[in-house]
Amino acid sequence: MQSFKDLNFCNVPQIFIGNGAIKNISDWLRKRSIKSVILVIGGKFLERTGKLNEIMQFIEKESCIIEQVECLKESDIVFIDNIVSKNYKKGIGAVIAVGGGSVIDCGKAISAMLPNGNSIGDHLNLSNKALPHSGKKVPFLAIPTTSGTGAEATKNAVVTQIGKNGYKSSIRHENFISDGIIIDGSLLVHAPKRITIFAGFDALTQLLESYFSPKTNPLNDAIILSGLEHLIDNFLSACGNGSNDIDVRQSMGYAALCSGIGLANSDLGIVHGIAVPIGAHFPIPHGAACGTLLGVSLRTNFIAMSQRDPNNICIVKMSKIGQLLTDNKHLTSTEYIEKLIETIDNWTRELELPRLGEFGINNSNFKKIVNLSVNRNNPIKLTKKEIEYIIKTRI
Ligand SMILES: [Fe+2]
């Protein structure tokens, strides 16, 4: 049993989950007497499905003025600064973001910068001159549509520039956790298969890594395990025959939310320690990078712990996850861990996760990624050689 250490659990916002839960937008605005919002959306799918209209009606019902912003890819400094400078004197009362992880991050960043008006770059950890953020923001309502990053529950907003001088950096403050979350199955059913696969692997990786983190605690573990149970029962179905099933989709949305709460409270491990720098330098979807690295990272962690730290509590925790994946009650601890790794490897194959090589990572440039990779809160500190092995195995 893990101890509480010094428990300091992050805020968990008001959460609405259900088919048609977007109707709660009106209540959320009314309770805060909000009369103008920035509405951040992703691609055209919301409009095509008629859902954008529905959402706007719930906002307009409260006599709210809407400034609409389209976020078509991960946001960089210039993009956020432009929106903030256009709107910061308008007395905007709230930001609502409806979309995937990039859209939620964009909305979160705007809500954090709107009352302040300076450049978001001032607060990013790109040089040693980063200024602390005061935490002052406008209320933020997150409506995720892809069941992946869990950004709706985290305290950081990611800003990304891909390429040679690329970066992936975050502004971070307890207050940035959203002030409301709506997970509506009628939105989630529209996520395409490829996005569902990548997002699902991101959520799965976040659940496992935050569960194995040395910083976790019993309350966090209970939420993570609940998310994992829903994900295990619904992931393959959401990517296949159950893609139109509202309950399946909402279970995946719930699992992603739990993964966000998990990582906000205990951080992540080696997979994200590699996937984040990869995402800054190569055009690889974050969930694809996480998913493709997950199986080999679990195996490397297990071998490293067995050799150098056989009493590491994560060996027991890995076995516990393996028990969720089989009805067989008579396996040994090692056999349950094998079951976990084997299941992840099977899902990686069945769902045809791409290899890193498809995104331009090869034997000539992978050393750079190895050097940029960090262990974060991995259950055991992996060596450069082990990190090199993980990446090479998935090129
Ligand atoms: Fe992630």
Describe the SSE topology.
Blueprint: E1 14-17, H1 24-31, E2 36-41, H2 45-48, H3 51-60, E3 65-70, H4 77-87, E4 94-99, H5 101-113, E5 140-144, E6 156-161, E7 167-172, E8 180-183, H6 185-188, H7 193-212, H8 218-238, H9 246-266, H10 270-281, H11 286-308, H12 313-324, H13 333-350, H14 366-372, H15 384-393
The structure holds fe (ii) ion.
Explain this structure to me?
With 395 residues, this protein is of the alpha/beta class. The chain has 2 domains: 14-188, Rossmann fold; 193-393, Dehydroquinate synthase-like - alpha domain (Dehydroquinate synthase-like, alpha domain, Up-down Bundle). It has 15 helices and 8 strands. The strands form 2 sheets. It has a 6-stranded parallel beta sheet with strand order 1-8-5-4-2-3, with helices on both faces. A hairpin with a 5-residue loop joins strand 6 and strand 7 (167-172). Helix 1 packs parallel to helix 3 (51-60), helix 11 packs antiparallel against helix 13 (333-350) and helix 12 packs across helix 13. The radius of gyration is 20 Å and the shape is globular. 48% of the residues are buried. Bound molecules: fe (ii) ion (FE2). Fe (ii) ion (FE2) binds next to helix 7 and helix 11.
Task: Give a brief outline of the structure.
The protein is an alpha/beta fold and 395 residues long. It has 15 helices and 8 strands. It has 2 domains: 14-188, 3-Layer(aba) Sandwich (Rossmann fold); 193-393, Up-down Bundle (Dehydroquinate synthase-like, alpha domain), CATH 1.20.1090.
What characterizes the major β-sheet?
6 strands, parallel
Order of helices and strands: EHEHHEHEHEEEEHHHHHHHHHH
What is the radius of gyration? 20 Å
The name of the CATH superfamily of the largest domain reads Dehydroquinate synthase-like - alpha domain
Question: What is CATH's topology name of the largest domain?
Answer: Dehydroquinate synthase-like, alpha domain
- Give the spatial strand order of the biggest sheet: 1-8-5-4-2-3
Q: Any guess at the CATH architecture of the largest domain?
A: Up-down Bundle
Strand percentage lies at 5-15%
Distance between the termini: 38 Å
